[in-house]
């Protein structure tokens, strides 16, 4: 039973959609910047799973999906580093990382 599930494209697409859905739900429902950062990572993970699934089952060149997934991982790492530095700077100035407390930011 488990062997046949791992050989179907739909299984991976459902897993990717669940990760993506949890990420979008977390973006909407999390009041803190750290929770939103984790939710964005879930969205990127869901997209990576979908790219790898399409690479595994449909792509004629097996390296295309893997290269795109590596780019997504690099973007996620850079996004996490920049976001965490912004969160630290916001916390130093406002003593809070709650999104509702940051409405008075001036650009």
Give an overview of the whole structure.
- By secondary structure, the chain is mainly α.
- Helix 2 packs antiparallel against helix 3 and helix 3 packs antiparallel against helix 4.
- It is 77% helix and 0% strand.
- It has one domain: Helix Hairpins (Orthogonal Bundle), CATH 1.10.287.3510.
- It has helices at residues 2-5, 9-29, 33-57, 63-94.
- The relative contact order is 0.13.
- It is elongated and about 50 Å long.
- The chain is built from 4 helices and no strands.
List keywords for this structure.
107 residues, mainly alpha, 77% helix
Compose a concise summary of this entry.
It contains four helices and no strands. By secondary structure, it is mainly α.
Query: How is the CATH topology named?
Result: Helix Hairpins
* Biggest beta-sheet profile: none
- What is the CATH C-level name? Mainly Alpha
Class from secondary-structure proportions: mainly alpha
User: Architecture, according to CATH?
Assistant: Orthogonal Bundle
How do the SSEs run, as a string of H and E? HHHH
- Count of runs of 4 or more consecutive helical residues: 4
Low-pLDDT runs of 5+ residues are none
Mean pLDDT, nearest integer? Answer: 84
How many whole angstroms does the radius of gyration measure? 18 Å
State the shape.
Answer: elongated
Can you tell me the number of structural domains? 1
Helical content (DSSP H or I, runs of 4+): over 70%
Tell me the strand percentage band.
under 5%
Q: What gap, in angstroms, lies between the N and C termini?
A: 56 Å
What is the number of strand segments? 0
Oligomer: single chain
